[in-house]
Amino acid sequence: MTRVLITGSTTGLGLGAARELLDTGHEVVLHARTRERAASIDDLARQASGVVIGDLSSALDTRRVADQANAIGGIDAVIHNAAVYADARRIATPEGHAHILAINVLAPYLLTAWIERPARAVYMSSDMHASGDTSLRDLDWTERTWNGVQAYCDSKLFVSTLALALARRWPDCLDNAVEPGWVPTRMGGRGAPDDLELGHRTQAWLAVSDDPEAATSGGYWFHQRRRKPASAVLDETFQNALLAELTRLTDVPLP
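Above: the chain's sequence. Below: its structure in token form.
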């Protein structure tokens, strides 16, 4: 039995992964942005090992989420599922970061730094990562003219790169990135053509399975099959440059 923390588990892919893991006998620590959102999954929370609460757009709240997870303890795997899509305008977080960057990239980075290291970690990507900007210029969009879709593409490039950089840096932790497909969640919309169940199955599989394919690290996955990501994701120079930039933006180095 494995204990898995899933961020953004009150809806969509995170909720689906939580239900699947609970149904197959694993322990789950749920995450909700607010107590009100947590109340919406009371039925599932009663089956869970705990619920951590905090808004991942805030570094302070993200720290609280990490502290709550560490207090529960015994986290074997983390699925960094929480994400937002393209904001119509640049929204600033309490620390002044772009909202998309904070939730999609900085929060997974900070949780990785602050949560006692699990045996496995899964980071959620998108095929749109291939259109991300590799220049690492103005990640926070304080100088560029705002483009929400581009900011989302950038965020998915960065979180995919983070996953594979960690796989190289921490050989004792299995780190992978997952492309769930365009699935009918609140983010993807009702008309999304891909299978929602297949969308969350890969992240759950990578978090707990003893399948030799799942017990590997440094992969970019789609529907339980490896895919080749954008070349920058595999580039060690780009990985190192991104980690340095994330350290600078958060003032939190990875252990």
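Residues 148-169 form the longest helix (22 residues).
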